[in-house]
TrEMBL record:
SUPFAM superfamilies: 6-phosphogluconate dehydrogenase C-terminal domain-like, ClpP/crotonase, NAD(P)-binding Rossmann-fold domains. The lineage of its organism: Bacteria, Pseudomonadati, Pseudomonadota, Gammaproteobacteria, Oceanospirillales. Gene3D superfamilies: 1.10.1040.50, 2-enoyl-CoA Hydratase, Chain A, domain 1, NAD(P)-binding Rossmann-like Domain. This is 3-hydroxyacyl-CoA dehydrogenase. GO terms for molecular function: (3S)-3-hydroxyacyl-CoA dehydrogenase (NAD+) activity; enoyl-CoA hydratase activity; isomerase activity; NAD+ binding.
Length: 691
């Protein structure tokens, strides 16, 4: 083995007749100026008379997991990635890429520029650029269709979702799957393949794009764009990928690059990068070093929809889980709910039967409260009744060890009241999951007056293992997510009162990019829940503007999907349908209140709903409910379907600037009426923007 001929972040060595270029930029070999310069320098040092082939690989687990996103904040510098891919494609010797670990974005574009792709068994391949607001910019939109065909290329690029090596082999993205898994044996296998390779240059740029029926392609495009919920980069990606084969390769990659450069500085791209960095920042930093408690066994109390969802979520993370429920029928239903969900995962190809059986073996359903003895964490998910929860926590504290964490999943109740009288209250906290818990990424970690930093640190470690996006919040009504959503829904009800229909409001906000409009969400959740909460505030209702339309809808027996009618009507297997009865109820209410209905534009509906979120975010920040301003955007994106490419209300507020934001908040206060509290625009100063 020859000594490496170059240093830095790229190494070149000669193995007999094979030149090996190794990317070495830990932890994921991301593309940087230094890496790109290193690849070109290594290619320049290869003796093409001595070597017969070149291997491009990565040190550690990955070939290259994409670009360093910090580079996208500045103007591109040379050498650019397209210059590197062009050099690989035009190199006189065949270049063999070793696809391993996360070979994504620019990493896959490097591999596509090579002549042969070998892949390790556990590698993932993808072009996820749309997820950060751009498109592939180094030939990926043109080489991938030539490797796997237009339909698969569209699916991979527009969705941004990676695929595994088995599928990659089936669709022609990789040429051979490596057998060896141990590093030394794998390197020997790669070198043996490269030494015997005699296939010559096989540039994808010279391949024809396989023809596909146009109607089939258009149907696929329609589905992919619908799932993107208005993400601008998705539509651009479709346009550029569809141009493959319609013009020369050189013209097409020039078009790709122009679109990439135009998108990289766009607000959606900046919003997505902002969230990327915000999500990877520490959600909580203790004031002094603490050793979080190691959690091995978790007990979930309550086997209803939420409790069984939490139990499943915790099982998926590899924990042993006690599922406690005093009612035998409810316990049986909860276990069945978990089993049915796992069975569905098997049908969808997301899980093996063996994996299901292993998970169910770690589930311990019981009606005996004494089963919590010896557990490390108890998560309570019973009915929203303060007295009942207080009694349960008192019982639990007498059964578990003094270091066992006690968490409540309450959505609105005062956790300080729940913790009163509990021995060692420093171990009490809130873990507010969102339904369905096994799918929703957001987790609010709620800090009480007595919660210790060690407890919070343990909760954050737990959340990471659950693969949740955790935010640390103070104990306050509605915490962060539900309080934001309440302000948003209230503003939508104001517009409903003033003349907009439920359909009009829902359509405008879905056009903005929300997954579902507020009145469809209300029907899905059940209108009676909010109705009961409103009834509890009757004594103070006169202090602020109150819209009575939701009460009238409920009094008419329209409680949402579960009753077949709410703001919409629901038939067998059908989605929401407009119902004249709802329009009549709203019209009657307006007449009774002397309100003359007016028309609303999409823009006004969107602006008022968004400003309501921004204003409530400012109030939360002013009250110290959030640890970080970015937590508000994380909560809305991961808990409430806010369009990721919009960034979130804090991000948007920062783009407005203090003067414009102040004026907008004054207008919101004017249209919102009595009881409106205005937030302080200075709390989201632009100079704190991350990423």
């Amino acid at each position: 083995m020859a000594e490496p001929c170059s240093g830095g972040q790229v190494h070149l060595r000669q193995e007999g007749a094979v030149a090996v270029i190794t990317l070495d930029n830990p932890p994921v070999n991301s593309s940087t100026d230094a890496v790109r310069r290193g690849i070109l320098a290594a290619l320049g040092e290869i003796d093409v008379q001595r070597a017969t082939a070149v291997v491009l690989t990565g040190a550690g687990q990955h070939l290259m997991a994409g670009a360093d996103l910090h580079e996208l904040e500045s103007e591109p510098t040379e050498p650019t990635l397209p210059q590197v891919t062009a050099a690989l494609a035009g190199f006189p010797l065949p270049v063999i890429a070793v696809v391993k670990g996360h070979t994504l974005g620019g990493g896959l574009e490097l591999a596509l520029a090579c002549d042969v792709r070998l892949a390790t068994p556990s590698a993932t391949l993808g072009l996820p650029e749309v997820s950060v607001g751009v498109i592939p910019g180094a030939g990926g939109t043109q080489r991938l269709p030539r490797a796997v065909g237009l339909p698969k290329a569209l699916e991979m690029i527009v969705s941004g979702k990676p695929i595994g090596t088995v599928e990659a082999s089936e669709v022609g993205l990789v040429d051979e799957l490596l057998v060896a898994t141990e590093e030394a044996a794998q390197q020997a296998e790669i070198l043996a393949y490269a030494s015997r390779y005699r296939g010559g240059k096989r540039p994808l740029a010279e391949r024809e794009v396989a023809p596909v029926d146009e109607s089939t392609l258009q149907a696929l495009v329609k589905r992919l764009l619908a799932r993107s919920r208005g993400l601008p980069a998705a539509a651009v990606a479709v346009e550029v990928v569809m141009s493959a084969g319609k013009s020369s390769f050189a013209e097409a990659v020039a078009k790709e690059r122009a679109h990439f450069l135009a998108l990289r500085g766009s607000e959606p791209a900046r919003a997505l990068r902002y969230l990327f960095f915000a999500e990877r920042a520490q959600p909580f930093t203790p004031t002094q070093a603490v050793e979080p408690r190691s959690l091995k066994r978790v007990s979930v109390f309550g086997a209803g929809t939420m409790g069984s969802g939490i139990a499943l979520c915790v099982l998926q993370a590899g924990y042993t889980v006690d599922l406690l429920e005093l009612n035998a029928a409810a316990l049986e239903a909860g276990v069945k709910r978990i089993a049915d969900e796992l069975e569905g995962n098997i049908r969808r190809g997301r899980m093996t039967a063996e994996r299901r059986d292993e998970m169910l073996a770690r589930l311990r359903p019981t009606q005996e409260i004494q089963a919590v003895v010896g557990t490390d964490l108890v998560i309570e998910a019973i009915i929203e009744d303060l007295d009942v929860k207080r009694a349960l926590f008192a019982d639990l504290a007498g059964l578990v060890g003094e270091e066992t964490l006690l968490a409540t999943n309450t959505s609105y109740l005062d956790i300080d009241r729940i913790a009163e009288g509990v021995a060692h209250p420093e171990r009490v906290l809130g873990l507010h999951f969102f339904s369905p818990a096994q799918r929703m990424a957001l987790l609010e970690v709620v800090r009480c007056r007595t919660t210790s930093e060690q407890t919070l640190s343990a909760a954050i470690t737990f959340s990471r293992r659950l693969k949740k996006k955790a935010i640390v919040v103070a104990n306050s009504w509605g915490f962060v997510g539900n309080r934001l959503y309440a302000a948003y829904r209230r503003q939508c009800e104001f517009m409903l009162e003033e003349g907009a229909s439920p359909e009009r409001i829902d359509a405008a906000l879905e056009a903005y990019g929300l997954a579902m409009g507020p009145f469809k969400v209300a029907d899905m959740s059940g209108l009676d829940i909010a109705w009961k909460m409103r009834q509890q505030t009757m004594a103070t209702r006169h202090l602020r503007r109150y819209v009575g339309i939701p009460d009238l809808i409920c009094e008419a027996g329209r409680l949402g999907r579960k009753t077949g009618k709410g703001y919409y009507r629901y038939g067998e297997g059908k989605g929401p349908v407009s119902d004249p009865e709802v329009a009549a109820i709203i019209d009657w209410y307006r007449q009774e209140q002397g309100i003359e209905a007016r028309t609303f534009s999409n823009e006004e509906i969107q602006q008022r709903a968004l400003l309501a979120l921004i204003n409530e975010a400012l109030l939360l920040l002013g009250e110290g409910v959030c640890q970080r301003p970015e937590d508000i955007d994380i909560a809305l994106v991961h808990g409430y379907g806010f369009p990721r490419w919009r960034g979130g209300p804090v991000f948007i507020a920062r783009q407005l600037g203090n003067e414009r934001l102040t004026a907008a908040l004054e207008w919101l206060a004017e249209v919102s009426g009595k009881g409106h509290e205005r937030g302080d625009a200075s709390l989201v100063s632009i100079d704190t923007l991350r990423g």
